[in-house]
Amino acid sequence: MATKRHTTRRKNGEGTRLTNADRYQMFTDRVVKALDDAIARVKAGEKVQLFWQRPWVTANYAPRNLQSGRPYHGFNVLLLALETMDNGYTDPRWTTMRGANKLGGKVRKGQHATWVTLWKKVQANVENDEGESERKQILLLRAYMLFNVEQIDWPEGVLKPWEPEQAGDWSPREEAEQVVSDYLASEHAPTFDHKGGNRAFYNPFAHNVSLPKQERFRSAPGYYSTLYHELVHSTGHESVLNRVDNWDRFGSEPYAREELVAELGAGMLVAHVGVDDDHEFENTVAYIDGWRKRISEDPKLILQAATKAQEAADRILGITRDYDNGNGNGDES
């Protein structure tokens, strides 16, 4: 007699077992809750900046692993930035409970972990175009828990205070412009002009980005946020990352997916160069609720878009990462 395999589920505790669908839903629920909170605040008269529009303050404060110092990437950046904003953490370093214990740290009673993603390579039977089953290596979503270092009691002298790198004479706006010029000078980059009139857009057929003239923007951060949004679109071109198969019309499902990639990617780039100090976001209830509905209807949407956005941002920044092997998640230690 065959033995039926049961999957146990617990809400907390390391070693929790969840199905793949559970993991997608868990992460999506966290994002939907944040959007619900944002809608409530806008209705109350507040100006709201969505967490993906400013995933961290500057590159020096991007969430990173305590042990290795490596930054987290993709969807994990958004998750950890969201927790940082909600809880007021000032230290960008995170670790697992096991990692903290190895250093003599103890998670304080009552502190809750933050679930993050980890992609694992596994062998699975996949149906090919002919309807036949074949063995292939795929990436499977896993989840593990992190704690911010401020949630942990440390032995004296173990945890040194966080000291971001000194920028010296570095100018965020000079850095923002350098990112643009370097990308436009790279192989297969789009052309760029300020002939957009009162519109900013990417033309995939001409592989060209057009923006209004700089003086028509209220602020430099607003200008670069818009420019980065369109540059992220340009990475979808077949000669760059070949992300977009068909540049569908406004309002279609593929269009909405690509828009989310551009939104997330622009936020990552703006945060990387640190030019968001005086940029005001005019997020309406309708705008936020539109994303809430799409994300809640498709639990995979936000995770997939974040991964593609990170890949696009890395292409613009000239960073090479092995996405096919699930890299870019930081460390699990």
Question: Describe it for me?
Answer:
- This protein is of the alpha/beta class and 333 residues long.
- It has one domain.
- Helix content is 37%, strand content 14%.
- It is built from eight helices and nine strands.
- The strands form three sheets. It has a four-stranded mixed β-sheet with strand order 1-2-5-4. A three-stranded mixed β-sheet has the order 7-9-8, with helices on one face. It has a two-stranded antiparallel ribbon with strand order 3-6.
- Strand 4 (114-127) and strand 5 form a beta hairpin.
- The chain starts with 19 loop residues before the first helix and ends in a 16-residue tail after the last helix.
CA distance, first residue to last residue = 40 Å
User: Roughly what percent helix?
Assistant: 25-40%
Please identify the oligomeric state: single chain
Number of strands: 9
The total domain count is: 1
Q: What overall form do the CA principal axes indicate?
A: globular
* Major β-sheet profile: 4 strands, mixed
Order of helices and strands: HEHEHEEEEHEEEHHHH
- What is the typical, i.e. mean, pLDDT? 85
The largest beta-sheet arranges its strands as 1-2-5-4
Secondary-structure class: alpha/beta
Q: Which consecutive residue ranges, at least 5 long each, have pLDDT under 50?
A: 1-15
Task: State the helix count.
Answer: 8
Q: What's the gyration radius in Å?
A: 21 Å
Strand proportion: 5-15%
